[in-house]
Amino acid sequence: MKFFKKVFVPLLAAALFCATVLPSVSNAEQATKPEEKLVQTEVIQTDHGEATVTTNFKDDDHRLTTVVENGKTTKIEYFPQDQKLLIDGVKQDELMVKEINADFTLNDVPSGGTFAGKFDYSYNWVNVGISIGAGVISTITKVPVSSILALISISAGMNTVAYFTVYQYSYPRTCGVIPYAHHVIFYESASRTKVTGVFDTGKFFSSQPSPIGCTP
Known about the structure:
seven-stranded mixed sheet; globular
């Protein structure tokens, strides 16, 4: 089964799109089946039409996302270990990443967590379009697709490069796997001086826990 989210995308000048609501899973069902969160689906609306984005995080070392738009299915694959991005099996050189290990303070680390790395990304999504671009960035960061779409559409008419930084934190092993969390900051330009959005993902497992119903 897939875990469906409610999504809301505001009306923006650069790209016209509106809110779409999906059937939500009841709180009781979420409590008994937390593993469903490993497969997430969002339906978004852009000026090119409706797109359905489904991401499978069951194997966090090989994240899979499909974007279905105007009858066409696009497959996104992301491998965090070597920062490799594939779209329909083709390696994407538009994704640039730089690991920075010295730029943090102990005050920045969430309670109980350990700093695991800082990564500066830039991604030019002009050749794949805004829906697939948002799907790519969401797969990397684990920030919801609708939130990504709202951010990058603001500057879509002038700039198709998304600049974002991921701070990664790890936590003590539980249920046989290591929980992680991301603190993600989006910037207006390559200088990374003006912040356009900040998101915290909450804890997630690096792979499927045992038992499956275990939560971070």
